[in-house]
Design brief:
By secondary structure, this protein is α+β, with helices and mostly antiparallel strands. The protein is built from 20 helices and 39 strands. The strands form ten sheets. A seven-stranded mixed sheet has the order 26-30-31-35-34-33-32, with helices on both faces. About 1% of the residues have low confidence.
Length: 834
């Protein structure tokens, strides 16, 4: 919400500059997102002028040479009018106008200079509304007559004293629980409480209208549960005209487009009070009767933006005798909109059920200033606040006569408003919650500034909640929050909550997660944070088949957009998006990881009470070079083995026995992809159902499928993703330290010919199982295929390292163990080479 600072200062004007006001509002909970400047950068050189004459330019049909009194004098003290060449069609002698003198700086930064136009020197510029950013468009100059500004203006008067031509604008983020701050006066009340500056009287304090029945107009309310209050007033003898410059200036600075005086009044009253209004041309309301009802399924309504929208029975319409005229709470219709010929206006101000308006807005993809306010829960009392403001403006700006009476119906009309809640506030409880004493006197001062009614009570205060806060303040703790934020949250001491028998520490899963993230950072990877929401198109871009497990997605009922309508089933989407962003900006060497939650819908027949299966995963993507460019020639590029090596460094950090098994994944390169398995450690949370070799599948590793890489405009890339929950369960909470022995290891090499169907992992596991604890390490250091080993076979060269803690081993000590190793390999179909 945008609030022009001069408008705010009209109701609360603390002796603070705009930055100090921003700091106080933000620190008390009304966050200022940004400070914008609207209009001219500086007001110097902008004055009121009086056109003395306007003669045709001798050499240009569309230009006039004007003599303008700008309040300047010559050396003798005589008036020194300025000569200004003007191309506006409506300029004429006798007008009071806005003038920019040479040296003035326009909103776009242009500095005016004395110029010669078709041979005539022009000493300034007669301004239009758009040139001062008072409106979005204008056909001629702005005329400042008494009717528009309600003042007689002397030539030379600084224009800034007449119009807000240079305005700071606060852009506020209003939280959903504070709809009372969706109007300028509500923000002024917050500023009053935050600074102690005086607060002006409520702008709706004096109401020119009256209560009672309205003659000649009928309103029928069929859905009081969805419309707690409906009010309406009739205005006769309305003159439709452009709004005065001051009103246009305020609306434009607040982000609204001026249209005409009646429509602008509805927007002005809404911005001031927070309550939306709608003006009907009463002569175009068929039968002079409005009915508020539920829409029919597939019922069409043409709204003010020119679109025809199809409704359903959950939405509310306002109709006359000829059918629907508007969608309640969202937007008016074209049939009864105010036009230049309008003479009678029916001003409707109603209160609508917030959840219903939110649902209708979402279903129709129609957001408006009105819907954004109603969905947050306005109060019925605000209807007459807006009516009072609008009534006074209709009289002042439109010359309208308000008809006697006010239509006021609904469950919470004038005689049926919900009572104000009364809540006790204990001084001792405030101190216990905040950790610092705040006297009852100070509490009463704060709450009184926020419009709460205060009475002394034993041990504290009895507080009556104002109408506009009834949905927000319901308990004592809510009042304590109000006291804390206004007194100054930044002043509260840093204390720990009072807890008995509790010690702060990380769980085992949290420690594993942090260790995994630290391991990636230690290897030089950068962490990214992606959205938990994903585009359904991600599934097709990853080439997932119809029955793939990643297709079991969790679909959002109320997504932010269609491109964020599912919960991500994998981290690949955000990793690929981040990689593409970097590669597109000439940074092809990408090494990134993400640690976050992924979500999958349950398979058929599940018995879980949780709505979805979710777990914390770790994903890694490598692309481009693995090291900086150097003079020594080609560098290593990211591939399957780079990702596998990084994965191995991570898993070995936890002392786990791990392996990869060739397995095709749709989004990975065929033949360059594998599943990742670990053997749970002793003392881990996973039971070993089938002995020490029972493994747990953590995830996958491999190079991206070329089609997937191409969909993200990436070169060759390698990835892996693992389930950190399963990793934590497979890891022992306590990793035992084994001391290094004082004796050196005994190293031997062994070459064995094995069928190609036997993987290296199977061979290594067989060697470890046969050798027992004496074998310290075994690695494959060479692979050979060729005629010497025979077709369908390959030779693996193994480096064996043996060690014990009490002596130096000899070949004789190892001979029996080596025999067991050979026997185990023979069972796999192998034979020693050479």
């Amino acid at each position: 919400m945008k609030v022009p600072l001069p408008w705010l200062r009209e109701y609360c004007d603390p002796p603070l500059d705009v930055n100090a006001i921003e700091e106080r509002l933000t620190m008390t909970g009304t966050k200022v997102e940004a400070i914008h400047h609207h209009g001219v950068p500086a007001t110097d050189g902008f004055v009121v002028g009086h056109v003395l004459s306007a003669e045709q330019h001798p050499d240009a049909d569309r230009l006039k040479v004007c003599t303008v009194d700008v309040g300047a004098s010559d050396e003798n003290g005589d008036a020194a009018p300025a000569t200004i060449v003007c191309g506006a069609p409506n300029v004429a002698a006798g007008q009071t106008v806005a003038v920019a003198r040479p040296g003035a700086v326009m909103p776009d930064g242009t500095k005016l200079k004395q110029a010669k136009l078709r041979g005539v020197v022009s000493e300034g510029m007669i301004l239009s509304e758009s040139e001062l950013e008072l409106s979005t468009g204008s056909e001629g100059i702005m005329v400042l007559d008494g009717q528009m500004l309600d003042a007689e203006l002397a030539p030379g008067t600084p224009l800034a004293e007449v119009l807000a031509i240079s305005t700071d604008v606060l852009e506020l983020e209003i939280t959903p629980n504070r709809p009372d701050c969706l109007g300028v006066y509500g923000v002024a009340r917050e500023l009053h409480a935050a600074t102690g500056a005086p607060l002006a009287d409520e702008p709706w304090g004096e109401d020119p209208g009256s209560a009672g029945p309205v003659s000649g107009v009928e309103v029928i309310l069929e859905v009081p549960e969805l419309c707690p209050r409906f009010t309406a007033r009739v205005f006769e003898n309305v003159t439709i005209a452009p709004s005065p410059p001051w009103l246009k200036a305020r609306l434009t600075a607040a982000g609204q487009r001026p249209i005409n005086n009646v429509v602008d009044i509805t927007n002005y009253a809404m911005l001031l009070t927070g309550q939306p209004l709608h003006a009907f041309d009463l002569d175009r309301v068929a039968g002079a009767r409005l009915t508020v009802r539920r829409a029919h399924d597939d019922e069409p309504v043409q709204t003010l933006d020119g679109q025809t929208r199809t409704l359903d029975s959950e939405m509310i319409v306002i109709e006359d005798a000829d059918g629907p005229t508007s969608i309640a709470g969202l937007m008016g219709g074209t049939r009864s909109e105010v036009a230049s010929s309008t003479k009678r206006v029916l001003m409707e101000v109603a209160n609508w059920h917030g959840p219903n308006i939110h649902r209708s807005s979402w279903a129709l993809a129609l957001r408006s200033e009105a819907s954004s306010r109603f969905e947050k829960g306005l109060q019925p009392e605000q209807c007459l606040h807006a009516q009072a403001v609008a009534t006074q403006l209709m009289i002042d700006l439109c010359g309208a006569a308000v008809s006697p009476g006010t239509i006021d119906i609904g469950l919470k009309s004038a005689d049926a408003v919900a009572p104000h809640a009364r809540i006790g506030l204990r001084e001792a409880r405030v101190q216990a919650i905040l950790g610092v004493p705040i006297s009852s006197k100070r509490q009463a001062e704060i709450l009184g500034a926020l419009d709460f009614a205060i009475e002394p009570h034993e041990g504290g205060l009895e507080v009556t909640v104002p109408a506009l806060r009834r949905d927000d303040i319901t308990r004592e703790i809510d009042l304590i929050e109000e006291v804390a934020r206004i007194d100054g949250v930044e002043r509260l001491p840093a204390t720990l909550p009072a807890r008995r028998g509790a010690a702060g520490k990380l769980s085992h899963a949290q420690r594993v997660r942090r260790a995994a993230e630290d391991a990636m950072v230690g290897r030089g990877l950068h962490e990214i944070v992606g959205w938990s929401f994903a585009d359904p198109a991600l599934l097709d871009r990853l080439l997932l088949g119809a029955d793939h497990e990643l297709r079991r997605v969790v679909t959002l009922e109320n997504p932010l957009s269609d491109a964020q309508s599912i919960m991500r089933p994998t981290l690949l989407g955000s990793l690929l998006d981040a990689a593409r962003h970097n590669v597109a900006r000439n940074d092809p060497d990408v090494a990134i990881f993400e640690s976050g939650t992924v979500y999958r819908a349950h398979a058929a027949g599940h018995t879980s009470d949780l709505p979805a299966n979710e777990h914390h995963a770790l994903g890694v993507l490598l692309s481009g070079g693995l090291e900086p460019r150097a003079w020594r020639g080609e560098r290593r590029e990211a591939d399957f083995f780079a990702a596998k090596g990084l994965l191995g460094a991570l898993l070995e950090r936890f002392g786990l026995d791990w392996s990869v098994t060739a397995c095709e994944w749709p989004f990975l390169h065929p033949g360059r992809s594998a599943s990742v398995d670990v053997v749970p450690a002793d003392g881990s949370g996973l039971a070993r159902a089938n002995g020490s070799e029972a493994s747990v599948r953590l995830g996958f590793v491999g190079e991206l499928h070329p089609l997937v890489a191409g969909a993200w405009d990436l070169p060759r890339a390698a990835v892996f993703a693992i389930d950190l929950g399963k990793l934590a369960a497979a890891t022992s909470p306590v990793i035992e330290f084994t001391a290094f022995g004082p004796f050196p290891p005994l190293r031997q090499d062994l070459a064995v010919i094995l069928p190609e169907a036997v993987t290296a992992v199977e061979a290594l596991r067989a060697v470890r199982a046969a050798a027992g604890k004496t074998l310290e390490e075994v690695q494959v250091f060479d692979v050979y295929t060729g005629a010497q080993v025979g077709e369908g076979c390959r030779s693996l060269a193994l480096a064996l390292s043996f060690r014990v803690l009490d002596r130096t081993l000899t070949d004789e000590d190892i001979e029996p163990i080596r025999g067991k190793i050979v026997a185990a390999l023979t069972e796999l179909g192998g034979e020693l080479r050479g």
